[in-house]
């Protein structure tokens, strides 16, 4: 064990003064270039990556699956007691799923990093640096992710909450609110003289003229469907053929009543980590499960008498729909989910897929089956957006389109792409572009991820030596794929599935050390390798282009 006194830090926010001992960063992404330069005299180091071993990652994912199932059942029973309703724990699973999944995943990551630091340095020789922050319960799972994984101040405070539970001393400090303006380098204003602008205007007008059907006419009583991914004409067909009704996207006005949050502490965990997760429930569980429940419950009764409930992504974004589905479930209604990302069926572990398959009775996939997760009966069917663009390739532009990915600097959920491996991912990208032929780079368009999670400078460093490469992200991806001469993708994603459906010539490359293929999908990936489409060496991929 190391005998030095050290500060621990989980983010790139530090006190302005008073750093009188070495700083140990719990995650590599926190040690930015500016922080490293500032701490040159006081010294700093970075904790070893605790998630570098795929076996450990998979074991952790399996363990957290058990925690999720156990805590979901226990929290559901506690919520029924708090609200004095005679509902089984399964009633709460759908409204609680998106938040509970990310709560457990983020909490365990910070917990494991702090435990590793204590094992290395000793609890009596460590002090965690944590920013002061007024962290109130999140109103959605997206807000929870923002507070724990994107916003540096609240993410730092989140580390502090866990450190206190582990008996680690915490030194709090004040930090000003960050400037939330996005990097102007990735901004693009529409050029009214370019074809892209006119295409966008034309397609908007075409959509308005060709879809004059109001959503309010889709009011069948057989299936309640969330409208994501369907055109109005497709919704009309569902309404006529299946007696379907489409759920409105309007968020209801909710009221709050006082509840005893401490009643959640009656839950008993099965180990130290679950005990900690329970202790933090009163402070972090979202109000739509507590103070706002009565209001959501009353609104949802209007939609409670359907025979089936279908959604693609509203399990994560529409709490009222979730409560309506839960009420329908009490009356034996069937829950139908649908794949909404390319990683499903491909990654060795996918937390979204695990949760959705668990609470659904039927689950629609993009043409595959497996038995990795318990729960839903899988139905391989066509996906609306992919089918709409099937074989629509009509190469008109002499461009090669390259799409990248990103992620928050704090782990959101366990999977193939986590912050600890992003440096390796970026290094792979740099090798690729440095080995591309000049004539290819001259017609290359790089499309960054639509959300800047703080890595834009690192992305720009990769492109810095190649000013001829254009950066664009405004035009809908599917429209560019229909006209580009070549599509390049450096990660497992939905976009290359779109390219395959459109029939766009495609080159894929990613580091096989970062991505684990699911056993059932191995033969498909092997075929892509054999045909010279998928590469794990970026230089070989560049040469193939």
**C-alpha termini separation:** 50 Å
Please tally the β strands and state the result. 17
- Overall geometric form: globular
Radius of gyration: 25 Å
- The residue ranges in which pLDDT falls below 50 over 5 or more consecutive positions are 181-195, 204-218
What does this 3D model show about the protein?
The strands form 3 sheets. The protein has a 6-stranded parallel β-sheet. A 6-stranded parallel β-sheet has the order 14-13-12-15-16-17. A 5-stranded parallel β-sheet has the order 3-2-1-4-5, covered by helices on one side. By secondary structure, it is of the alpha/beta class. The model is unreliable at 181-195 and 204-218 (pLDDT under 50). The longest helix is centred in the N-terminal third of the chain and has 32 residues, at 90-121. It is built from 20 helices and 17 strands. β6 (223-225), α7 and β7 form a beta-alpha-beta unit.
Features of the shown structure:
six-stranded parallel sheet; globular; 545 residues; alpha/beta
